[in-house]
Amino acid sequence: MIVIGIDPGLTGACAVVDHLGVRAVFDLPTMPVPGAGPKALVKRKIDGRALCQLLLKHCPASEGSAQVVLEQVHARGDGNALQTQASLLRSLGAIETVLECLKYPIRYVSPQSWKRAYGLGPDKNKALETARSLYPGAQADLKRQKDHNRAEAVLLAHWGRGELA
């Protein structure tokens, strides 16, 4: 079974995992927002076409449908800028649209649920350490400190392998 883990957002990532390990880990592709002026807080958006191509490259139709574990996100009333919250939900919508067009079943999971399974909290380093220990072969894709979103995508996919089996 192929499981795709997605940590949504403009700095989010995607991981493709199967019974042999991590097939691919990549940052979510983005593109400039058309017409975004110099004062816009959000200048990029998810590139749906590029995401679709990447998923098809790593999950060929000949191998059957992949299952997706998508981290559930919500707008928060904690003072975040409205544009930033709108960007997160726009990103989620773009990702969902690509997945629906590819007919991939989606399992939504809250961050609290999947992180609890690994004993994770807000420390991003712990997510990196955990993903590296579970998949030593993915070290090259998780070598930088800023790869914590990639690590979370790997952990989402790994969590999904256990839950969807």
From TrEMBL:
GO terms for molecular function: crossover junction DNA endonuclease activity; nucleic acid binding. CDD domains: MOC1 (cd22992). Transmembrane segments: none annotated. The lineage of its organism: Bacteria, Pseudomonadati, Pseudomonadota, Betaproteobacteria, Burkholderiales. It comes from the Bacteria. InterPro entries: MOC1-like, RNaseH_sf. This is Uncharacterized protein. PANTHER family: HOLLIDAY JUNCTION RESOLVASE MOC1, CHLOROPLASTIC-RELATED.
